[in-house]
Structures are given as structure tokens and as C-alpha cells.
Amino acid sequence: MARTGTARGRRGWLIASLAAAVAALLGSVLVASAWAGAFGSGTAARWGIGSGPAGLSGGQSRGVPGLPGTVVHVSLVNLGGPMMGQRTMMGGAMRLSADRASVSAGTVSFAVTNFGSVDHELVILPLADNQQVGARPIGPDGKVDEAGSLGEASNTGGQGAGQGIRPGASGWVTLTLAPGHYELVCNLPGHYGAGMYTELTVS
Ligand SMILES: [Cu+2]
After folding, report:
1. Which terminus of the chain has fewer Cβ atoms in its 10 Å neighbourhood, N or C?
2. 138 Cα–ligand 1 center, Å
3. 14 Cα–ligand 1 center, Å
4. What spacing in Å lies between the alpha carbon of 65 and ligand 1's midpoint?
């Protein structure tokens, strides 16, 4: 605070605080709109989060090219910022949601956007008739068995498999799906257990 006596110092301090305020505001708007987009405004309100401006609404894919077949938009979100450890976000604080619950059999593309603050992914697994979503056994590594996987979108800014979709980025994958039930999951360690799964019916 020694330099606040001079005009230059005061202006510098003012600019720095303004920039910090804008950054904080932008951050909260992005998080709020990701939640609003993923859960609808009702759920967002229950979590005490207001909805963001229309231009920032969740569900918008970023940098995804035109994709063939029926396109399913998938949103990946988590509560908490990058300062929070993975453990604190377990127990239902992450969500994977799709903009449609059913599609026709054939060519299906998934446009997957990570609105969260940590890496996520989408893996498409078959769901047997006697199987419920969210009920897969979780191994000691925090992951579920990916046997029978039909494909995944885990590539930042690209298609197919990769190292995970980074926060703010999209990935995509195109598959040929037969009629049946599928479970869309994020299988990064701990994420399935934290709630990252949803069902897709193909008819
Ligand atoms: Cu995840």
C-alpha cells in the first residue's frame, strides 16, 4: 500500500481490483449457466444458482463440426472450482446429461461439452435388460468395467478417444447403434460414483 499515495499507484490498484472483480463475475456466470443448462432452471434454483445470460447457456457445443446422423448433445459438469480436490466432489456432485433420452437406431453422433472445472469424458456402454443406470460396480481404481464399450469421446477438440476433454472444450464421436438400452458414463476415477451417468434408449 506504500504507493497508493501517488496517482499512478492508485490507478494501478483500481485497474487490478476491477480486473479481479470482472474475472470473479465471469467465473460465477459460467458455472451458473453450466448448471442451469445441465439441470434446467428449477434444479439450478434449488442449488441456489441463478441462470446466466442466454448467450452462455449450457448445451452449446464448442468447436464441434457438422456431425452425421442423429446428434445427441451431452453436457459434463461438476460443482466446485479447480481448488477443490476430487474427493470433495464425490457423492453426487457431478453430472452427465444428454439433450435427448432416445434416438432411432443407426448413425448417432455425440457432441460432448465439458462445462466443469476438471477433465471429463463420455463412454457409451451397453445396458442389459436387468441392469439399472448408476448401478455398475465400481472397482478399487474408482472406475467401472468398460467391457463391451461401443466407443467414447475423450479427446479435447477432436473425435474419439483421447486423454480426456478439458474444461471448456468439446469432443465428439459417431457410432452405429442397434436398438437397445445404453448407459452414457464418464469413467474417469471417481466420476461414475459421483453421478456421471445417464440412460439412452435406441429404438
Ligand atoms: Cu467426469
Report:
1. N
2. 14
3. 39
4. 23
Q: What is the pTM of this model?
A: 0.69
Q: In this predicted model, what pLDDT tens digit does every residue of 102-131 receive, in sequence order?
A: 999 999 999 999 999 999 999 999 999 999
The per-residue pLDDT for range 2-16, each reduced to its tens digit, is: 444 445 555 555 555
Instruction: Name the residues around ion ligand 1, CB cutoff 5 A.
Output: 120, 186, 188, 191, 196
Write the CB contacts of 137 (distance below 8 Å, at least 6 apart in sequence): 144, 145
- What is the chain's Cα-based Rg? 20
The owner of cell 472444450 is 169
pLDDT of residue 16: 54
CATH of 59-202, one of 2.60.40.420, 3.10.20.90, 3.90.249.10, 2.160.10.10: 2.60.40.420
